[in-house]
Amino acid sequence: MSGSQIIVLVTPVFLALMALEWAIGRRRGRPALRLADAVSSVSLGMLSQTSAVFTVLLRVGLYTLAYEHLALWRSEAFWTTWYGWLIALVFYDFCYYWLHRMGHEVAVLWAAHAVHHQSQDYNLSTALRQTSSGAVLGWVFYLPMALAGVPPLVFVVVGLVDLLYQFWVHTEQVGRLGWFDRWFCSPSNHRVHHAVNDSYLDKNYGGILIVWDRLFGTFKDEDPREKCVYGTRGLLNSWDPLWANAQVYAGLLHDSWHARRWADKLRVWLKAPGWRPADVAQRFPKPAFNLHDMPLFDPPLSAPLRWFAGVQFVLLLAGVAAFLWQADGAPLATNAVWFATLLACQWALGAAMQGRIGMGLALMIEAGALATATSALGFTAWHLLFKPLTMAIAIVYAANHAYPMSATGRFGLHRSCWLLLSALLGSLAGDVFLMLSEHLFIPGLVSFLLAHLCYIALFKQGVGWFGHRGALGGTLALGIGMYAFLWHGGLPAALRVPVAVYVVVIALMAAQAWGRHAALRERSSLAVALGACCFMLSDSLLATNRFVQPLPLSQLWVLATYYAAQVLIVSGMVTALTRGAAHQADARTQPLTPHAA
């Protein structure tokens, strides 16, 4: 049984203990967790486990390589006795202490470990909040075990034991434990470790034993007079799992890039977290840390959104469990496709809880990811469900926003809403035609052609025709080049005219989208322009695969870029139309000025 499968089996125990902690906290009048924070933490744990499928070579492979070629002494008989296992566990915990300590003292290692500390809550869900990049450098700290001849199997097992032990210490519901606190990592000791108070900062690194901290001068007892304040000194303020893993790296990259001295560009990564070159700190100042100015990140969750988040979380948990259970025996490409699908769903859930996108758009992203995966991996029956469902969700989402806008009676908004819905309906028809039979290629092409014409008319609303001449020339040049490539690659004579018309139309759509962005200069207009480019890329991949030569995993690339295009355009246009309706409503409610009167 693999480590991933063991994690799957113990997950129900984790969830049961989290429920117990919540019930105890509620009874004591101290709720132990917030829904969004807990979902975010567990989601990061899911991402850590799913990404670990691809870093096993670093975590175990390099250890095994070192063991086979560098071990100074080998005796599996010794290491598999009860005392051998115990020594290996203590050895692992010693190595973990130094990895953990360096993770707080070296910036590049902190960039990986910071994920675990970002939550402003401290509960059992925080224990599951783990990094996805720690394996990149973390394996180095366990090489002494390989040199000492600890077999890889023993190394993996004691590592799992050390990790599982640390789950229960992430709680505020367990107080001081007397003699136990003096020898072992306990809830009290680990609360200190997670605190950002000056007196608690960078203390108590032990995984199972707190003895290491007492030996090496990093121990700090919890003071009942000083309440622990949790989080990081650079607050994350996001439920985005990707940004949670990238936040500190992005800051280091920024400072390294802007440092004038080459030595400072390197020191940024190797010095203590928070160190910045003087010139960078002067040009890009940051406010000093203030323990009393750490507002709790807690975007409001409506009742429907809470239900949505709860259901989505359960479904994601089931999907991750299924993925981990079979990952060790599945091909790399299959694992990569399902990993990307789960990641898209996790991102959509986090964005919805944060209020960055609506629930409808989150469902569209998730359905599109599943439609792409089921097509790429040959799950035909499921693909027949998710492909039309994606655009049906998009239509409902757009219509839900379009109806109140069209009810304002303003012709511009009314027409824009109908053009958006018509484009989505055309796309849905094209999806159905292309999905049902290759003989329906022409009806599918015509449906998408009409959809793109609607998009061109939609992007024209409120701006001029093709406002960016460079974009017009560039997209037409790309279209001509693509058409020449298809012609040379064997485009059938019967399709040369309709494909030529289609290429011109989609190039004009992209040009109009960029012209619109040149006029408006908004984030929503940029999203629409990028979506139009994704459309060009998707159609180019589709045509290349169909008329020139088959592409590996063609459906993955074609559908991924297609749904990226639709999501970007729908989100950008709905945002723009909603803003336009709000401005018109404000204009109608404002009293006339004397000049206007």
From TrEMBL:
Protein's membrane topology: Multi-pass membrane protein
Residues passing through the membrane, by range: 6-24, 36-62, 82-99, 307-326, 332-349, 361-382, 417-434, 440-458, 470-487, 493-514, 526-544, 556-578
Keyword DNA repair recorded: no
Keywords: Lipid metabolism, Membrane, Oxidoreductase, Transmembrane, Transmembrane helix
Cellular component GO terms, alphabetical: endomembrane system; membrane
Subcellular location: Endomembrane system
Domain Fatty acid hydroxylase: 85-218
Main location as per UniProt: membrane
InterPro entries according to UniProt: Fatty_acid_hydroxylase, Sterol_desaturase/TMEM195, TMEM86B-like
GO terms, biological process: lipid biosynthetic process; membrane lipid metabolic process
Keyword Transmembrane helix appears in the UniProt entry: yes
Molecular function, one GO term: glyceryl-ether monooxygenase activity
Domain of life: Bacteria
PANTHER family assigned: ALKYLGLYCEROL MONOOXYGENASE, STEROL DESATURASE-RELATED PROTEIN
Family indicated by similarity: Belongs to the TMEM86 family.
Protein name according to UniProt: Sterol desaturase/sphingolipid hydroxylase (Fatty acid hydroxylase superfamily)
Organism: Diaphorobacter nitroreducens
Taxonomic classification: Bacteria, Pseudomonadati, Pseudomonadota, Betaproteobacteria, Burkholderiales
